[in-house]
Design a protein that fits this description.
Blueprint lengths: L3 H14 L13 H9 L8 H9 L5 H15 L1 E2 L1 H13 L4 H22 L1 E2 L1 H14 L4 E8 L14 E8 L2 E5 L1 H5 E3 L6 E3 L10 H7 E3 L14 H6 L2 E2 L3 H4 E6 L4 E5 L2 E9 L8 E6 L4 E4 L3 E5 L2 E8 L3 E9 L2 E11 L4
Parallel strand pairs: 1-2, 11-18
Antiparallel strand pairs: 3-4, 3-8, 4-5, 6-7, 9-18, 10-12, 12-16, 13-14, 13-17, 15-16, 17-18
Helix pairs in contact: 2-4, 3-7, 4-7, 5-6
């Protein structure tokens, strides 16, 4: 008797039944875990078991132990943009030759892990790998999730093949999502170097917000019961920046990045806030390609945890509309405003 189909169904049911809520750990004090991670700053990866012991000793829960591991990785492993760029060039070069592409992938994997262990530099695959490895050494169930990651600088060529990896971790019998690569820091636009700049919003992130710019190859790793986005919807979705993860549990509307609307169109913006969010200053930066201006939305309304905004586009043209909250850029939309034919 073949039990694999039944096993798959039960696994999927279990994942869906134990889906995470973004606020499950909002009241947990992770200060001891963060101190433990900081105390081991600069530690090498020569002795992984010893590193895990130092990161997790005296911490009482799996959530705290995972937090210490995750924080250490995000604050000690650098994103190697040169390595990423080289891999991107090679994959594009060999995309029509499956044998050469497979050979390159095998060679590149070895280079990734050698660079990670020797220099503590890597790309997304290495980040996901080291978070998983250290977590498993602490007896925490952690998985590598492969799929597509969408950024503001991406183009359609970046989404022909899976281009990103992140983690799912099981805590208190529920699965949660994390992206240590994007949480660890940013590239300095002046010199191209990596700068550590930890983003806590990508730690145990909201699954429905995560889905705006993460598309897993296996559907059950979306981790929510509602209708899953299609790949086309994923590609068409607005740009949501990392700072949005600090504020939002869900992006509701607008649904698309690119929109064509008539003059006097009223844009509705809607978001589900995280319980600890307290936005004070909400503005729209509107750029028509020649001039830019900062305006307040026409209306701002808070309905429990929902934030609703409106803004009317009164003139023809094409506009990049950037949503900023308390000075942080959180989302971008593009609107082409036309005059309807009579």
């Amino acid at each position: 008797m073949n039990l694999r189909p039944l096993t798959s169904i039960l696994c999927l049911f279990f994942v869906l039944q134990t889906q995470s809520q973004v606020w499950d750990f909002d009241t947990v004090d992770f200060s001891d875990a963060d101190k433990r991670a900081l105390a081991n700053k600069g530690a090498s990866l020569d002795d992984l078991q010893g590193l895990v012991y130092n990161l997790t000793k005296d911490l009482k829960t799996d959530a705290e132990r995972f937090r210490s591991i995750y924080m250490w990785v995000c604050n000690n492993v650098k994103n190697d943009y040169g390595l990423y760029a080289k891999n991107k060039r090679k994959r594009k070069r060999y995309q029509e030759d499956s044998l050469k592409l497979e050979a390159w992938n095998d060679k590149f994997k070895k280079r990734i892990f050698k660079t990670l262990l020797r220099r503590k530099r890597t790309i997304c695959t290495g980040y996901a790998y080291i978070v998983q490895t250290l977590s498993q050494l602490a007896n925490i169930d952690c998985r590598i999730i492969n799929g597509f990651g969408k950024t503001s600088t991406g183009d359609i060529e970046d989404y022909k093949y899976p281009n990103h990896s992140w983690n799912a971790v099981k805590l208190n019998d529920k699965w949660y999502l994390c992206d240590p690569t994007w949480a660890s820091g940013v590239q300095d636009i002046n010199n191209g170097r990596f700068v550590f700049n930890y983003n806590n919003g990508l730690f145990l992130a909201s699954p429905e917000l995560f889905a705006i710019n993460h598309f897993p190859l296996e559907e059950h790793w979306f981790l929510f019961d509602n209708t899953k986005p299609t790949f086309k919807e994923f590609l068409e979705a607005p740009i949501v920046y990392n700072d949005a993860y600090q504020l939002f549990a869900k992006h509701i509307q607008p649904l698309k990045l690119y929109n064509i609307v008539p003059v006097d169109f009223n844009i509705n913006f809607e978001y589900l806030l995280k319980p600890n969010s307290n936005p004070k200053k909400i503005t729209l930066l509107i750029d028509d390609g020649i001039n830019s201006k900062t305006v307040r939305p026409d209306t701002i309304a808070f309905d429990r945890l929902k934030l609703k905004l409106t803004y009317t586009l009164k003139k023809r043209g094409q506009y990049d509309i950037h949503l900023k909250i308390d000075g942080q850029l959180v989302a971008t939309y593009v609107y082409k405003v036309i005059r309807p034919r009579n």
